[in-house]
Write a structure and sequence with these properties.
- The protein has 216 residues and is of the alpha/beta class.
- It has one domain: P-loop containing nucleotide triphosphate hydrolases (Rossmann fold).
- Helix content is 52%, strand content 15%.
- The chain has 9 helices and 8 strands.
- The strands form 2 sheets. The chain has a 5-stranded parallel sheet with strand order 2-6-1-7-8, sandwiched between helices. Strands 3-4-5 form a 3-stranded antiparallel sheet, with helices on one face.
- Helix 1 packs across helix 9 and helix 2 packs across helix 4.
- The longest helix has 17 residues.
- It is globular.
């Protein structure tokens, strides 16, 4: 069974998907982390998002995998913490918009999910990666709420920004993600929308689990 959870930045996808996977005993595949890992790798290699030839070469040699504790590794390096920085957040939309990156990520995602029960979260899981997923959900939240969530994440890493800066960042990323030509952020027609603005993580998880249990 494939469960697709899509939505914009800081809508609660990753934590919710992880919780749903744990409750169901499924594999959780954080596709957003994969794009972030590539973004981190390109930054370290000093490759810009418009240098397509160098990106192609970089992608031809990368290895991305999740370990038993769902920490992400790029070419043998655990980058789980580094990819959550504000700098990577500001770069990832441009990298994700590169068709070669999207295609490589989809290829890896399909390989990992093949033959497994998986919960996948991202921006195009229900529309591009697994359009025939048994269950699709689309998480949304008010931009102010999302900015406060992002601030908490940054403060855990010793970084900080003002709420107004984060709101501007999120709106810019929403525009980039939803307007890109390749695999844009859109809600699948058959996805169940969930507004997480006033929901706790447990409420988000239970809402999805209850829907699945009632409809499987």
């Amino acid at each position: 069974m494939i469960i697709a959870i899509d939505g914009p930045s800081a809508s609660g996808k990753s934590t919710t998907a992880k919780g749903v996977a744990e409750k169901l005993g499924f594999t959780h595949l954080d596709t957003g982390a994969m794009c972030r890992a590539v973004t981190w790798g390109l930054k370290n290699a000093e490759i810009t998002a418009d240098d397509i030839e160098m990106i192609r070469h970089f992608l031809s040699e990368i290895e991305i995998y999740f370990d038993a504790t769902n920490r992400i590794h790029l070419n043998g390096i655990d980058v789980s913490r580094e990819i959550r920085s504000g700098d990577i957040s500001s770069r990832v939309s441009a990298v994700s918009a590169v068709p070669e990156v999207r295609e490589k990520m989809v290829q890896i995602q399909l390989q990992i999910a093949k033959g497994n029960n998986c919960v996948l979260e991202g921006r195009d899981i229900g529309t591009v990666v697994f359009p025939n997923a048994e269950f699709k959900f689309f998480l949304i939240a008010d931009v102010d709420v999302r900015a406060k969530r992002r601030l908490i994440d940054l403060e855990k890493m010793g970084e900080t920004k003002t709420i107004s800066e984060l709101i501007a960042d999120i709106r810019r990323r929403d525009e980039l993600d939803s307007s890109r030509d390749h695999s844009p952020l859109i809600q699948a027609e058959d996805a169940i929308p969930i507004d997480t603005s006033q929901l706790t993580i447990d409420e988000q998880i239970n809402k999805i689990i209850n829907h699945i249990n009632l409809n499987k």
